[in-house]
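idk why but the lab printer keeps eating my pages so im just putting this in chat instead. protein + flavin-adenine dinucleotide:
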Amino acid sequence: MISRRAALTAAGAGLVALGTGAVLATRDKPEPAGPASTDNAGRTVWRNWSGIQYCYPQQRLAPTSEGEIAQALKSAPGPVRVVGAGHSFTALATTAGTMMSLDQMAGIIGWDGDQAIVRAGTRLGDLGPALAAKGRAMANLPDINKQSLGGALGTGTHGTGKALKAIHGDVTALTLVTPRGEVIACSADQEPEVFNAARVSLGALGVISQATLRTTANRRLHRHVWVEPIEQTFAEAEARWDKHRNFEFYAFPFTDMTANITHDETDLAATIGGHSEDDSVLELMRIMRNLLGFSTPLRKAAAKALISTSRPEDVVDEGWKLLSTDRPIRFNEMEFHLPAENQLAALKAVIAAIERERPDIFFPIEARRIAGDDAWLSPFQGAGRGSIAVHCYYKDEFAFLYDLIQPILLQHGGRPHWGKLHNLQGAQLAALYPNWKDFLAVRQRLDPEGRMLNPYLKGLFNV
Ligand SMILES: Cc1cc2nc3c(=O)[nH]c(=O)nc-3n(C[C@H](O)[C@H](O)[C@H](O)COP(=O)(O)OP(=O)(O)OC[C@H]3O[C@@H](n4cnc5c(N)ncnc54)[C@H](O)[C@@H]3O)c2cc1C
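predcted complex ->
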C-alpha cells in the first residue's frame, strides 16, 4: 500500500525517537499451535491459507475431465468437497471424505467473441497473462490473484469499483457437474434457475468445470496511492467512488489516517518497478502495537507521524499486473457487504469499537465498493454494496470479529462474504437473501442425498 522505502525511512526515524524498547517490540509471538500433520489413520492434514481450517481427507482426487468429476461425485467417499487454492477463511472446503482439486483442469479452452471460456481450476494469476496474450483482461481483480476461478465464483470474490461487478457478475454461462453425475450447461437462457443458483454456490451444488467470462480490452492503469487524515477520506470517499475506475481505502486504527488507492485507465507508458508492498507498513504497525499498545494517545501520535511521512506512489502498468498484489503477512479476516449508504457510518462504528476494546489490533480496515448483480446468493444481489473488511494477524485471537465486529456490520444491513469469517446460519442468512429458498430448492434437486454437504454447509443451509 505504501512504498517500502518511504515507510522504512520514516520508521527508522520514528523508532530511534521511541528509544530502546523498540528492540523488544520487534519480537513476534510464537506460532499458534497447529494440527498434527497426520491423523490416527495416517491421513495427511489439509489446511487453509490462514491455518485455522483443517481436515484429514480420506481421499484426494485431481480429475482431468468432466467424466472423471462425475464418477467421483457419484461414488467417492463423501462428503465430496472441491477445493481451489484454499484461500477461504471459513470451513467451506473441509471434509473427512473426498477432497477434489481442479488443478488439472486449467486454462482458456475457447472464445465466444470477446468472452473467454475458462476451465474452473485456472488460477486468476495465470488467467491474466493468458487473456493479455489476446489483448483482453478481466474487468476487475481481487486484492490477490492466487484463487482458482471456481473458488472465486464459489464465494462471490470481488475487487473494488463502483461500476465493476464481482467476478461472477461477468460470467455469462457455466457448466456444472452435479452430484448425480449430470453435466448441466447453463446460462440466462438455458437452465436459468441453475444458472442463478450456481454462479455463487459455495461448491454446494456440484463442481463447476468451466465458465464463460466477459472480458475487457487489456488497458494500462495508473495507480495512485497516498495517505491522508481519515476525516478527509470520509468527506471525499463517495466522490472518489464516482470518479475513479477503482477506489478503495485502508483505515489504520489508532492513527486517524488512511491509505487511499485509485486506479484509472491511462495511455501513459508503463513505469518500471515500484509496485506496492504492504508488508513493511504492517510490520511497523505491529511494532507500534507492541511498543505503545498500553497508551492509545501515544500510539496514535507515533503511528500518525510515521504514516504521514510516506510519500505518494504512482505506478503505470497493465491492469492485470497492478490490481492484485501479494499478501506476505498472514491474517484472518471478516468482510461484510453493506448497503452503500451505510458503509461509512458502519466503518466509523467499527473503528471506534476496535479503538475502545482491542488495542492489540494493528491491521488496517479495508473499504471497497462493488456493483450489483442478480445471482441468488451473491452478496451484491439486487444493488451495489460497500464492503468493510476487518483483518487480524494470524497469531492474534480473532473471536472479537464475531462478538464485536459482526453485530455492527449486521446492524448496518451487511451480508457476509462467503469465504470470510462469520457465524451466521440458516434463518439469519435466509433473512438476508430474497432467493434463499429458491437456492435451497435447486440444491435439494441437484443433491438430494447431500453428497456435497460437510458439517459447515449443513449449518449454513440448516439441513
Ligand atoms: C490473502 C487473501 C486475500 C483475499 N482477497 C480477497 C479479495 O480481494 N476479494 C474477495 O472477494 N475475496 C478475497 N479473499 C477471499 C478469497 O478470494 C475467497 O475465499 C476465494 O473463494 C478463494 O478462492 P480459492 O480458489 O482459494 O477457493 P477455496 O477457498 O478453495 O474454495 C472456496 C469455495 O469455492 C468452492 N469451489 C472451488 N472450486 C470450485 C469449483 N470448481 N466448482 C464449484 N465450487 C468450487 C469450494 O468448494 C469452496 O466452497 C482473499 C483471501 C485471502 C487469503
